[in-house]
Amino acid sequence: MDSKNFRYLLIFIGIVSLSFAAIFIRMSNSEPLAIATFRMGISSIILLPFFLIKKDKNISKKDIKIFIFSGLFLALHFYTWITSLRFTSIMSSTVLVTTNPIFVSIFSYFLFKKKIKKRTFLAIILSIIGIVLMSYGFSFSTNLKGNLLALFGALFASLYIISDYYLRKKYDLIDIVFPVYLVSFLILLSLSLSLNIKLYPLPLKEYFLFFLIALIPQVIGHSIINYSLKFFSPIFISLAILGEPLGATIFGIIFFKEIPKVLEIIGGLFIITGIVVSDKD
Q: Half-sphere exposure (CA, 13 Å, Cβ side) for 57?
């Protein structure tokens, strides 16, 4: 397998890993902020040995602010998105949180003066059509609070992707993900403690779910996405992440018997088409 195909395989593995997040979160009975806190805390612990054994950790002082903002955006992303799953369906939540190509393209234009190519614009339009179809297929208007929270999750995810895109040009993967995850954890932990969110004691099942959420969607899924930013544009990565609702829908059928409607299937095909035609440079 050549390097190009290997990178696409990694993207696929990353998307499948991300698709498990909504399933594990829905299985948990803990507060959304507690889930987000443990997700980032356990992820940081898992990555700590890899960060420590790396010899070169030359982080520029002028980039420290970028690391902090990246961690803040990631914390806000998880807080808003995980909370949305308490108020809306898995389908609506995962579909709306992956609308970040809209925000990424706008932010990229203003921050990096990156022009939107015609095929990328077409890909975004196709993806938006797919998102609308899938949303209406699952009664979009019935859970407004959850849907709005998921949209805010998409906005914060876009800012996180853009900040990481900047960092990936200068640093190795582990030099980015560990500090960013740690900052995110500290922010979420501070919020949990200030709001008196119960973190201990909890049933053993909850801690096991926290571990799965940290290992599969976070350490494996998000780390692969971060790694891929070195080779693909942030707009393409955002479009690729649109595969997450498809995976979450399949797992939703298996674990929760949530059968997709015809509009959801058609919308999924639009999204896949958008990924295929998007700009990958």
A: 13
